[in-house]
Amino acid sequence: MNHIELTPRQSTILDIVKTYGPITGNQIAEKVNLSRAALRPDLAILTRSGLLGARPRVGYYVTGKNPTDLIASTLGRFRVGEIHSIPIVVRENCSVYDAIVTMFIEDVGTVFIVSEGSCLEGVVSRKDLLKSTMGGKNISDMPVTVVMTRMPNIIVTSPQESVLRAAQKLITHQVDSLPVVDAVQVNGKEKLQVVGRFTKTNITRLFVQLVENKE
Ligand code: ADP
User: Fold this and answer.
1) Nearest-CA neighbor of 51 among 35, 39, 43, 63?
2) Which residue, judged by its Cα, is nearest atom 4 of ligand 1?
3) 135 vs 193: which has the higher pLDDT
4) Which has the closest alpha carbon to 132: 159, 160, 106, 95?
5) Cys-Cys crosslink for 113: which of 117, 122, 138, 147, Cβ 3.0 to 4.6 Å?
């Protein structure tokens, strides 16, 4: 992907600033036959995305930055800890039935299985749970540990990791969510304590907030 999607009007503004910049908002408005107020959202998006710079009493100018670099640097700047969701967890002694109920009540697609101290033991997805209902077994008697993906095969992230790196993990490993963990020592053993849930929705929300200027 080489370009971020600009509306025709935003492209026109960018071209005007490239040709005439530095140029004030009012001068741009005159050239496109619109009011300054009508242009404000477009100018906000263009400056927010880093394509245009703005200086008081000077006006707008092109920064010359590559849009792809800007996306990478924006996603690289945010940390998982700033945007993750709360983790939805069940204990390892819980049944498949309990995990399904938790998934519905909490309205999530992935439930983490933890031992004492919120230590990560496993992950169950919607399809793991659907599959477990297919054999006609009694899911109230079936431990969730039988159907979960277990440690050490779980792909995790941490609050300090960049959103870009965590997003790459979701894509590479084709999963919907990552447990956000802190490394802790339990009885001399290295364990991963679950502190959050990082999902595709977190990334989508970040994108929308960046564009809507509400970062
Ligand atoms: P679904 O299976 O509902 O489409 P996912 O794509 O997230 O949901 O899960 C696919 C498989 O990967 C499931 O078996 C699930 O247990 C496992 N899984 C989910 N998240 C992770 C993760 N972070 N690390 C390792 N395995 C995972």
Assistant:
1) 63
2) 127
3) 193
4) 95
5) 122
Ligand 1 pocket residues where CB is under 6 Å: 110, 123-128, 149, 153-155, 175-178
Which residue has a Cα nearest atom 13 of ligand 1? 125
Task: Report the separation in Å between the CA atom of 17 and the middle of ligand 1, taken as the mean of its atom positions.
Answer: 47
- How far is 87 from 194, CA to CA, in rounded Å? 7
Contacts of 43 (CB under 8 A, 6+ apart): 13, 25, 28, 52, 54, 60
The answer on pLDDT for 75 being more than 90 is no
**Atom 5 (ligand 1): residue with closest C-alpha?**
175
Closest-lying ligand 1 atom to the alpha carbon of residue 179: 23
What domains, with CATH codes, occur in the chain? Answer: 8-65 (1.10.10.10), 80-206 (3.10.580.10)
pLDDT value of position 215: 43
- For residue 152, whether the previous peptide bond is cis, meaning omega lies within 30 degrees of 0, is yes
